[in-house]
Write a structure and sequence with these properties.
Layout lengths: L6 E6 L6 E3 L4 E5 L6 E2 L10 E6 L2 E6 L6 E3 L2 E2 L5 E2 L5 E4 L3 E6 L17 E4 L4 E4 L2 E2 L6 H12 L5 E2 H8 L10 H16 L8 E4 L3 E4 L5
Parallel strand pairs: 3-4
Antiparallel strand pairs: 1-2, 1-11, 3-5, 5-6, 6-9, 7-8, 7-10, 10-11, 12-13, 13-14, 15-17, 16-17
C-alpha cells in the first residue's frame, strides 16, 4: 500500500519543481541546492525555513531568515506553526507555496485526462495536453521551444538558451526580445486550444521561462 505524503505546490517563485513531496521527517527550505525544497531567489535565505513531520502533522519554523517566513500573511515568530491543508506559505516577498496536507494529495494524481499535463514524443515531434494530441501539429519553432522546456523538468530556461536552440547558427544573431515573447505567446495559444483552464508556460521575470505540468 502506498503511503500518502503532504506536498508543497509552488504558486509563485523560481523553483526547479512545481511541487515538492514531503517525504522526510525534517525538510529544509532555502536558496541553495542542498536544501530539500529549493527557491532560487536572492531574497530567500540559504536555509530559510524548516518543516518538521510529527505523525500526521507538519510544523513550519523560520530559521532566522533575513526576510521572514509567512503563513497566510502572518509572519512566523520563534515558535513553529502547525500547518493546515491549503495554508499559503510566503518566503520573503518572492515566493508563495501552498501546503497540501497528508491524505489530500491523492486526487492530484488521478484521472489523467482531467489532470493538467503535457506529454511529448520526440521521435515523431508530437505533443499531448491532458491526454489529447495538439492538432494540427506545432510548428518546428514551437515544438523546439516546448521540447527545450520539457527536458528541463520545471527548471528555468533562459532567453539566451532559447535563442541558441530555436534560432541556431547565424539566424540567432539579432533575435529580439519581442520575437522570443511572440513565440512563447503563440505556443501558449496552441496549448490553450486543448486546455484553456491551466497555465503551462510560466514567465520568470528577469530569467526566462519554465514549464508546469510536465509528464514524468
Amino acid at each position: 500500500m502506498n503511503e500518502d505524503f503532504a506536498i508543497l505546490l509552488v504558486q509563485e517563485g523560481d523553483s526547479p519543481r512545481s511541487q515538492w513531496e514531503l517525504r522526510k521527517e525534517t525538510i529544509i527550505i532555502g536558496r541553495v541546492d542542498e536544501c530539500d525544497v529549493v527557491i532560487n531567489d536572492r531574497q530567500v535565505s540559504r536555509q530559510h525555513a524548516k518543516l518538521m513531520r510529527d505523525g500526521n502533522r507538519y510544523l513550519l519554523m523560520d530559521l532566522n531568515s533575513k526576510n521572514g517566513t509567512f503563513v497566510n500573511g502572518v509572519q512566523l515568530k520563534a515558535e513553529p506553526r502547525v500547518l493546515e491543508d491549503g495554508d499559503q506559505i510566503g518566503m520573503a516577498l518572492s515566493a508563495r507555496l501552498v501546503f497540501v496536507g497528508q491524505g489530500a494529495t491523492a486526487p492530484l494524481f488521478m484521472e489523467d485526462e482531467s489532470r493538467p499535463e503535457i506529454r511529448m514524443e520526440p521521435e515523431t515531434k508530437r505533443a499531448w495536453v491532458k491526454g489529447h494530441e495538439i492538432s494540427p501539429p506545432l510548428s518546428l519553432a514551437q515544438y523546439t521551444l516546448l521540447e527545450l522546456l520539457y527536458t528541463r523538468k520545471g527548471g528555468v530556461v533562459s532567453r539566451d538558451e532559447i535563442v541558441a536552440t530555436v534560432w541556431s547558427g547565424e539566424a540567432s544573431e539579432g533575435v529580439s526580445e519581442q520575437a522570443i515573447d511572440a513565440l512563447a505567446r503563440r505556443l501558449r495559444e496552441r496549448i490553450a486550444e486543448v486546455d484553456e483552464a491551466n497555465q503551462y508556460i510560466i514567465t520568470v521575470r528577469g530569467h526566462g521561462f519554465r514549464l508546469e505540468h510536465f509528464a514524468g
